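Here's my example:
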Amino acid sequence: MSAVTKQETGRSGMKTIDMVYIAIFAALMAVCSWISIPTTVPFTLQTFGVFIAVGILGGKRGTLAVLVYILLGAVGLPVFAGFSGGIGALLGTSGGYIIGFLFSALSMWLMEKTLGRNVAVQVVSMVVGLVVCYAFGTVWFMAVYTSQTGAVGVMTVLGWCIFPFIIPDLLKIALAFALSNRLRKYVA
């Protein structure tokens, strides 16, 4: 191993440039979470940030960017929607969707690892990642809501937390897919 390579690679085997990309995309996810699109049910671009991170950086670095984003919020930095942060944000009703971002990224990474990184796999992995996030977040929402307020039906929760977001999230997937395919070649 050359002297330059030893300096660029940390103990974990990651290069400095990898750590920079992970930090940049964690910051991008924070900015995406602050952007709120006002509609009947307002939505943010958080899921877009997750999809673009994994789409451009690949499974490993993209998943690490999502993990860093969640950890930044967990320690109290206002990186989540509405400039919120802290353990309370993660333990609340919507915290499961934030934690679900990590499972989304992991499922996308798994699909990339097992099926390759072609166009079809990338699109399907983003849709599967969205479904994983929806599933984890909905179960979490129901558990927290039930413990705080009382029992609530699955269809009610889906009406509050999923159905209004399906079309915007599919549009975010399309945009993330298009951008990641164009920008991936510029990332080392």
User: Anything to note?
Assistant: Confidence is low (pLDDT under 50) at residues 1-7.
